[in-house]
Amino acid sequence: MASDPALVEAQKKMKNAEEALQRELGTIRAGRANAGILSRVMVDYYGVPTPLNQVATITIPEARVLMVTPYDKSSLKDIEHAILVSDLGISPANDGTAIRLVIPQLTQERRAELAKDVKKQAENSKIVVRNARRDAMEDLRKREKANELTEDDLHGLEDQAQKLTNESTKRVDQIAADKEKEIISD
Description:
By secondary structure, this protein is of the alpha+beta class. The chain folds into 2 domains: 101 residues, Topoisomerase I, Chain A, domain 4 (Orthogonal Bundle); 68 residues, Gyrase A, domain 2, CATH 3.30.1360. The chain contains 4 helices and 6 strands, in the order αββββαββαα. The strands form 2 sheets. Strands 3-4-6-5 form a 4-stranded antiparallel sheet, with helices on one face. Strands 1-2 form a two-stranded antiparallel sheet. Helix 1 packs parallel to helix 4. The protein is elongated. It is found in: Cytoplasm. Pfam families: RRF. This is Ribosome-recycling factor. InterPro entries: Ribosome_recyc_fac, Ribosome_recyc_fac_dom, RRF_sf. Responsible for the release of ribosomes from messenger RNA at the termination of protein biosynthesis. May increase the efficiency of translation by recycling ribosomes from one round of translation to another.
């Protein structure tokens, strides 16, 4: 754990970038049921845009099926409409009490596209990580110029910042590799 305030802040930004990537990749449909793909669906619930997971239970009864069961049965049509207008590309099947979403099998071409998207998002996360390192380094250099740090302290803290960056980049790569493997090996 970093002890210098600049490094603590950089580490926090890096961790946020990793978590954001994890959330973002969770919304990618990989050919199997994953409740994360519904995380962005907003339902017009009594005139208020509400996240789907707050108005319904989302379960996975089978490998390729998501089942959305509303807490309030009168909101079933609103939920169905919200799923239809979302960019999921999955048609909901309403049976009167719940909505079933059957996740279609991915084509090889689509898998390649998704893997490319994963790499792009991972690269964007790495940029955020490197920017956090740059900000920390600038802060450290300013403090060294203001005689708040010695030159030796500066070099030691810069090394720590680089280690934090390397670790975070490695975690981003691992998150992306796991998602790519999930997409390709369905």
